[in-house]
């Protein structure tokens, strides 16, 4: 009788453990959104693509969302009226397909974007990022899991003790109990678990060696991309002019900054958009502008450049700290992606227009680049660079193909990116 009760208790414990594991395994809508959608979409306002809050109420059906996310080109090619209206409204640019996202993951993203709250009148948003505060119940599941494990051990020991007492009462031989730490099965299982954990830790550490995702160094001048690219809507190419013309994006010289800051000598957005470092320290925007003047050699009082004895401007270069670094054996061309591929800046750099201090958004790993090449469709329309691919153009016109990915034009060939 007791054994039946014990087995039922064990079954109950296992069921609770599985339920806690499934809670951990539930898709994280916020993480999926930031990894796949944030480069082009904002929950609350239009960006490169339309805002996503309330998208489940705007589209024809939930299945339509799944089909659109998995392959928007196929939906457009099917003649779907809403899809074609959306395609024409947003500059006839196909959305990047995400065939690997499950329906549950897409539902999690929709739930997340619908939970994001609008900014308060003071200009601040929940969490100071424009996103709803995430509910993190991980600690609760951890406590429940540990409690269940302890309960399972207690029941196991109680069952063994009662079995021994019952055997002694019935006069049956009682086997001498071997301590757990001397049990061969336990030692073997523990050794295997330790070996697997150590192997995973070593391999994962080696794979991530040299990668700098979320790297956010302190810069000599606090430059807010949110203020410049976000609030004031300054185009990325105004400062990074080389991004569409050369391999390097180019860090702007102080002269480009001075085109505006000869007239703008103070930060007037302290009330609406106060500046803070990543550590939460308040930043004096006007003082940062005057740091620029020191580097540029500008006298804000006389409104002229300071001169050395030989007549040269008394300026010095700004020692910006490079954030995005690739290995020396990797070739990356900005113009190839920005001009030819028409890839938006946010695709690699994340929601740059919402960042005060810039950090490395993407892992910039080989796998990350390859997945992008497999999924990203090349902009063939009105792009003379791809005129030599006559076969693909003919197949597109004949309706045999809905799009051409970077992989189709050799984007996975080793020598494309490696010397």
Automatic annotation (TrEMBL):
Keyword tags: Heme, Iron, Membrane, Metal-binding, Signal, Transmembrane, Transmembrane helix
One Pfam family in the UniProt entry: Cytochrom_C
Occurrences of domain Cytochrome c (ranges): 24-117
GO molecular function: electron transfer activity; heme binding; metal ion binding
Source domain of life: Bacteria
Signal peptide positions (record): 1-25
Residues that span the membrane, as ranges: 138-156, 185-203
InterPro entries, alphabetized: Cyt_c-like_dom, Cyt_c-like_dom_sf, Multihaem_cyt_sf
Descriptive protein name: Cytochrome C
The species this protein was found in: Taibaiella soli
């Amino acid at each position: 009788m007791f054994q039946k009760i014990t087995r039922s208790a064990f079954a109950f414990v296992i069921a609770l453990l599985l339920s806690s594991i499934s809670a951990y395994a539930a898709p994280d809508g916020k993480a999926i959104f930031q990894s796949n959608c944030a480069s082009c979409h904002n929950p609350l306002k239009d960006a490169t693509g339309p805002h996503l809050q309330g998208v489940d109420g705007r589209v024809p059906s939930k299945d339509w969302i799944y089909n659109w996310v998995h392959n928007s080109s196929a939906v457009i090619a099917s003649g779907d009226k809403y899809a074609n209206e959306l395609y024409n409204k947003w500059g006839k640019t196909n959305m990047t397909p995400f065939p690997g996202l499950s329906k549950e993951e897409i539902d999690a993203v929709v739930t997340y974007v619908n939970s994001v709250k609008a900014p308060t009148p003071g200009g601040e948003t929940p969490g100071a990022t424009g996103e709803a505060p995430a509910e993190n119940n991980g600690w609760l599941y951890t406590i429940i899991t540990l409690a269940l494990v302890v309960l399972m051990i207690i029941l196991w020991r109680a069952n063994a003790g009662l079995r021994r007492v019952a055997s002694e009462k019935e006069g049956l031989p009682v086997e001498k109990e071997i301590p757990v730490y001397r049990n061969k099965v336990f030692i073997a299982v523990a050794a295997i678990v330790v070996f697997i954990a150590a192997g995973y830790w070593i391999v994962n550490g080696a794979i991530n060696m040299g990668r700098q995702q979320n790297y956010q160094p302190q810069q000599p001048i606090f430059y807010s991309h949110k203020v410049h690219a976000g609030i004031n809507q300054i185009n990325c190419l105004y400062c990074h002019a080389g991004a569409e013309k050369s391999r390097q994006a180019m860090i702007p010289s102080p002269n480009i900054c001075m085109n505006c800051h000869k007239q703008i000598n103070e930060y007037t957005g302290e009330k609406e958009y106060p500046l803070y470092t990543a550590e939460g320290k308040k930043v004096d925007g006007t003082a940062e502008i005057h740091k620029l003047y020191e580097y540029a050699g500008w006298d804000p009082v006389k409104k002229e450049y300071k001169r050395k004895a030989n007549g040269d401007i008394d300026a010095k270069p700004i020692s910006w700290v490079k954030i995005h670094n690739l290995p020396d054996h990797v070739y990356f061309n900005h113009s190839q992606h920005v001009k030819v591929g028409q890839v938006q800046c946010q695709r690699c750099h994340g929601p740059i227009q919402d960042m005060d201090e810039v950090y490395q958004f993407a892992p910039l790993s080989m796998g990350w680049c390859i997945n992008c090449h497999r999924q990203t469709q090349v902009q063939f329309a009105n792009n003379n660079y791809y005129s030599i691919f006559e076969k693909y153009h003919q197949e597109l016109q004949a309706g045999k193909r809905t799009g051409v990915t970077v992989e189709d034009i050799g984007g996975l060939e080793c020598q494309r990116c490696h010397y």
